[in-house]
Amino acid sequence: MKVLFKPWLLALLCLNVLSVLTVPTAQAHGEKALEPFIRMRTIQWYDVQWSTQKFNVNEEVSVSGKFHVAEDWPISVPKPEASFLNISTPGPVLIRTERYLNGKPWTNSVSLEPGGDYEFKVVLKGRLPGRYHIHPFFNLKDAGQVMGPGVWLDIGGDPGDFRNTLKTINGEVIDMESFGFANGVFWHLFWGVLAAGWLLWWVRRPLFISRYRMLDAGLEQELITAQDKFIAKAVLVGVPVLVLALNAVTANRYPDAIPLQAGLDRILPLPAQVNAGTVNVDAIKAEYNVAQRAMLLQVSVDNRSQGAVRIGEFSSSNVHFMNAELADVGHMPGKDDVSNNGLSLDNNTPIAPGEQRTVTIEVRDAAWESEKLDGLIKDADSRIGGLLFLYDDVMGKRYISSISAAVIPKFN
Ligand SMILES: [Cu+2]
Fold it and tell me: What's residue 143's pLDDT?
């Protein structure tokens, strides 16, 4: 075989390699695709952290954190009456072994209460080695997925070492990686062959046009033979009988089985925070300056706590805007998508106990654009939502307020 040198092919190849090399390391996989008002005003994640980001196959890792369910839940998003916390992974690289909500074992979906705070923990086990981008996320029934903060996990080791055995209620130890595999393959093939055979039985004969002509000629009696009718009757009776018989065989063989659960777990939100009512924050208005990529939030802070508080952070859609003035006190967020020093106040003096102050917060950062949060002003629901973190450094306390306000865009 003669190999021809094709310059255009080489050029194409170079271009390809170049595009791979120059691709930015940040990867998007849909977390920014959801409308900003859903990302900002449904599940508000905070304090999310991983026990480790480097581990081996078979080793356990846990992700824990909290989330607030926004009071100002968007009107167009169905209420979180059935919600499931899951982990987004590129394929079966981890297995989930345990999951908790507010310290309680959590198997099914749960109904979340707007205004409530919850604490979660998910335990996972490494299955396939590699470097993966992983998020905890919520599946909200009829609304879709709301992503939590993402991290990179490095799983080392040998995939052959992976063990996933468990003990059944009868005391039998089974390997979950292969248990029932042959059985599953057999039944898929069995029904597949039966269905394909039934189709072929009809398809092998002349099809639409010729049958239509016969119908037109009044020969419909000849379209279906006595043999066709016999086979149809055999299938009609045989399939249900087979299903019922095999079901009886299975039930007999595994008498102690727990059915797949389809109910809802009932887990109430954490008791109202001790700080509730001690520092009240009310958002008055919000203005977004498109050219400056700056959100101006006017909030009224009513400090009824015992100590002076300072605004340290505004967090929305897993973006943490930190008050640069407070960076020294070490309120750094967890390993989240973005964190920065984009927050500044018109008055940085601590808000004294008993003081009621209207504060203008400027959150100026390219993240509004890069995280596609500025799409808010083009939405039919232009309301911003997020968590405002206030700190009492003397008492070592943190107060969290979920705020929301309608956003007025400014174009100059
Ligand atoms: Cu991600």
Answer: 87
